[in-house]
Each structure stands twice: as structure tokens, then as C-alpha cells.
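Recap from last week: sequence in, structure out.
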Amino acid sequence: MHVRKTERNKKMSNGHKVLLVDDEPTVLSVISLWLEEAGYRVRCAEDGNEAIIAINAECPDILITDWQMPNMDGIELCRWLRSQDLPKEVYTLFLTIVSDVEKVVEALHAGANDFLSKPANKWDLIARVNVASRRLETSESM
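Predicted C-alpha cells:
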């Protein structure tokens, strides 16, 4: 069953580019491995400033960001992203230890498309990223 899920996920990813932003190296390693196994092309950044450099170099399809990071946090990054005239919409998912309702609402108001609390379940995260991938495919075909 594990193999079937992975094969199905690879088909759903369509090779979309994901930028993963987190200040914890272990989180970057584990989550990027999960996403790569599912067929996504993953780049990593350790804070919002690094993410901006990465976005300007190559605009991702999907941004997964932590909230609490040094230099520039996830909320500031999300607001910056939504203020830019990028070549395409970037689906944004918060993956963070922050979980109270006010913070979830703040992230959504800042422009996030989805919110998932840490610690993340592999299949929950992959399912949400697959939803993002399907949504991007739909908007690209219009």
C-alpha cells in the first residue's frame, strides 16, 4: 500500500516546484525528502530573506513556510509574496508549531492558502500539497 500511495502522489505532483522555508535543518531534511518522494522538486531556505532570494531566482509553484524564523518570519514573507507582481500565483501553506485560532486567521488574512500544525503527518502534508498541485493545474488550464 505504501508503494501505491507514493506512485499515485508522484502522478499528482506534476513536478511542481516547492520552496520549503524553515529554520530547523531537520525539518527541512525530512519534509523535503517526503515531498521529493512524492515527485515534487524542492528547494529549501532557512528564513524569509533566503526565501525572497530563492523566489526572485525561480518562482516556485508552492511555498511551504514556518511562522517563527529569524530575520523575516513567515507572516512577513507571506505578505511580501502577495505584494509582488509574480509571473504566477504561488500557493502558500503554513507548516508551523503555532496553532491557536487567532494565528491561523492572521496567516490566512496575510494571504496563506492553507495551514498545518507541526508535528506534521507525512500523508496529511502530502495530501494538502497534492490539493495545491491540483488547484494550480486547474488555474493553469483556464
